[in-house]
Amino acid sequence: xxxxxxxxxxxxxxxxxxxxxxxxxxxxxxxxxxxxxxxxxxxxxxxxxxxxxxxxxxxxxxxxxxxxxxxxxxxxxxxxxxxxxxxxxxxxxxxxxxxxxxxxxxxxxxxxxxxxxxxxxxxxxxxxxxxxxxxxxxxxxxxxxxxxxxxxxxxxxxxxxxxxxxxxxxxxxxxxxxxxxxxxxxxxxxxxxxxxxxxxx
Length: 201
Ligand SMILES: [Fe+2]
Known about the structure:
201 residues, mainly beta, Protocatechuate 3,4-Dioxygenase, subunit A, five-stranded mixed β-sheet, 7% helix, binds fe (ii) ion
């Protein structure tokens, strides 16, 4: 987190980075806007939507939004091969001229990072729990702009102030509003504000 904070300073108003984490997989399916990414039918359905914009609020076309989250049992598909469908809760979306994106996943849940090795031992010695507050991962790229590796967080999560990996930033806490529209229970709006290449804090 410290290295990430030092290396990815952004101007005021731009979307902040947070840790990449070990569970991203290259080559997720490219999907149409509005498509579902949850393939196991578990969890509370959630519409994620918003825009990719520049620092002046202009739409960014051709931005690739690579997303991934755990399932409602708190595991990524790659942790449960043969149990979860491949590419469960993953997908890549590309913005059009309006910069808008939307997809349907689940409201993520908090989960413990693997804590059966030295990291677990360290956490125990420090008196810390291994949980991460619920979050959706995003990797947003667009020509001419700095890559954004980030999450959005569920603000009322039990672990929001004690993330095991210190990844939470206040600006990344996103609304999760109850909508109860058909099968969709939640809506989480969030805009990604990209910084041009070559601009620092
Ligand atoms: Fe994660």
